[in-house]
Model the fold of this input.
Amino acid sequence: DTEVTQTPKHLVMGMTNKKSLKCEQHMGHRAMYWYKQKAKKPPELMFVYSYEKLSINESVPSRFSPECPNSSLLNLHLHALQPEDSALYLCASSQAISETQYFGPGTRLLVL
Amino acid sequence: QKEVEQNSGPLSVPEGAIASLNCTYSDRGSQSFFWYRQYSGKSPELIMSIYSNGDKEDGRFTAQLNKASQYVSLLIRDSQPSDSATYLCAVTRSGGSNYKLTFGKGTLLTVNP
Done:
């Protein structure tokens, strides 16, 4: 089973809202990732967690705040986003940080 | 210099034909190579991974890797309309940044019935 789940599927939020994206995997993977993907572009790495610790932050603005409550869950907290943050947000996981990554279905975010 | 390059397409082939997708990469120390398929509005789905020179076959898909030429390709035999999607080539670098999947911009494939 190579399933990564994400909720919600779609999200519309205003620039003053606070919302969270959730990602879950039950494959025993110890590395989890957040990506942002704009239309007709490849995914762009945002954060990497390895063994529940933040390993990589790819210079992402502080209005995006990741959290890894346990080895199966990954959250992305959103606050004071801008319209240009509208995108598909993808979660991925892998057995270890350099192994094959499997993507979840994504959350389509629209910031008004 | 772009790190992973793909022809953006669109690549159009008739149903039943072989589709050939190509990718070149700049980092000679790259270790792992992946092909992901992405339908419009959906997330990337792993099709193939390849780590050593040569061919790797899985059903209708064959990945080919040539590290000397820094070239990786994906062949899709007996193409079906359901294969119509964007194909993303991705490479994992060696060393300190080996966590990072570097993607090409993707090749849009259209299979015509």
